[in-house]
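Here is the promised in-class demo. Please do not try to memorize the tokens; focus on the logic of going from shape to residues.
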């Protein structure tokens, strides 16, 4: 049985490695803070997938209804909250009526805050029930979507604030999902391809755009290619692109520089580590 070679590390070398590790960890927050302290801007070119959703909303007539399904909670707000705010700003700016709901009860308070704060930017022009509706949460998943396909006010007889939805000005010409002009599903997992596409847009025939975390975006590309969704806002980069298109750079745009600096820092560490390993192996061969 062959003997296994055991590499021993001296105490001095071990202390050196631990110190290097601490330095690497300490430098990362400094690298991330540099773009904020120096106000470094790294504008990018919006992707075609993000542009398509923006143009879809721009093409809607004033008074059109846009259904927002905000299926995320505070754990994903860094990526999904900025794109939510940007899309709501576009709707309010163009006099579209956003109808907001969620399948994630844990995110309801966050969604309420995002909607109300964005509406306040346009106050006193925008009022709940007349210019927008916060339907809130109903348990049931796919069954809720199917109920909305028959009657939105039947599925949500009251809004988040306890007001009767029947007769609301924002829902005046909207009986069911067949009557909405566009749906934007911003999800941290599962509700786009698992719920809204098969039980919503495919069944009732309304166009749907998707927003998601960066790791989810590749899974949605086939649905865009098959025209089941019109576009994809993917992660923080997609949110930054949308902010640029709307003309209101905000959290995502400012965070892109910090994210880019962090990526460059990690790439630099990988390069340095490989160079160090290459030099070490050559030194051993010479010995």
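The designed amino acids, position by position:
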């Amino acid at each position: 049985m062959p003997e296994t070679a055991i590499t021993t590390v001296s105490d001095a070398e071990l202390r050196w490695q631990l110190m290097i590790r601490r330095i690497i960890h300490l430098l990362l927050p400094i690298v991330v803070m540099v773009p904020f302290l120096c106000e470094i801007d790294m504008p990018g070119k919006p992707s075609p997938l993000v542009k398509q959703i923006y143009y879809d909303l721009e093409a809607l007539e004033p008074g059109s209804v846009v259904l927002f399904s905000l299926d995320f909670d505070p754990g994903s707000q860094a990526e999904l909250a900025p794109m939510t705010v940007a899309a709501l700003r576009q709707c309010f700016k163009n006099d579209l009526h956003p109808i907001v709901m969620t399948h994630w009860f844990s995110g309801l308070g966050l969604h309420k805050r995002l909607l109300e704060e964005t509406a306040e930017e346009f106050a006193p022009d925008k009022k709940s029930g007349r210019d927008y509706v916060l339907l809130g949460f109903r348990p049931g998943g796919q069954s809720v979507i199917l109920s909305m396909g028959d009657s939105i006010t039947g599925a949500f007889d009251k809004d988040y604030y306890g007001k009767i939805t029947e007769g609301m000005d924002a829902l005046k010409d909207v009986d069911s999902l067949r009557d909405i002009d566009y749906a934007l599903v911003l999800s941290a997992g599962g509700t786009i391809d698992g719920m809204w596409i098969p039980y919503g847009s495919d069944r009732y025939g309304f166009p749907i755009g998707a927003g998601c975390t960066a790791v989810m975006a590749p899974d949605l590309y086939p649905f865009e290619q098959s025209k089941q969704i019109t576009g994809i806002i993917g992660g923080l980069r997609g949110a930054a692109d949308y902010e640029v298109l709307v003309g209101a750079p905000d959290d995502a745009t400012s965070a892109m520089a910090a994210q880019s600096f962090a990526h460059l820092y990690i790439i630099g560490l990988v390069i340095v580590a490989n160079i160090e390993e290459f030099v070490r192996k050559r030194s051993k061969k010479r010995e």
